[in-house]
Amino acid sequence: MNFKALGAFAGLALLAACSSTPTANTTASTGGGNAMVAPGSEQDLVANVGDRVFYNFNKANLSSDADATLGRQAAWLAKYPNVDVLVAGNADERGTETYNLALGKHRANAARDYLVAQGVAASRIQTISYGKGCPVAAGNDDASYQQNRNAITSVQGNNPQNCH
After folding, report:
1. pLDDT in tens, 83-120
2. From CA 132, how far away is CA 48, in angstroms rounded?
3. Backbone phi and psi for residue 56, each to the nearest 5 degrees, phi listed first
4. N or C, where is the chain less crowded by C-beta within 10 Å?
């Protein structure tokens, strides 16, 4: 057996393994746990469950994708009964401030109602509407608008959008 060739191969394999580090997106997409994330934390919710659902233009009804995300959120909240959440409803920049505040409220309430229907105590969920005042994506195009039509769930005490 050629020990030099075996040693060289082992060294290359070690270098290749060290150069590939999984990202948070990889963890979230595979549904795997992340050892660096505290269970029941905002980061745990985002990485392992998903913190937002999206809506169609001028709508507040939930899609099948939204149902799936909210179902995972309900299961996560059942696992962490001491965690309270804030559901923030948002709209894209089109429309008046008054209209978008009302639409954001309907979106937040739709997400809250789904969680409550899944057994989460209503007292654990607060809602707020930011209307169009707190975009998560900059831009005046359809892709940005789609990202801004959402309801974002955050662990109480955290406000990832930095909106007040």
Report:
1. 999 999 999 999 999 999 999 999 999 999 999 999 99
2. 27
3. -80, 165
4. N
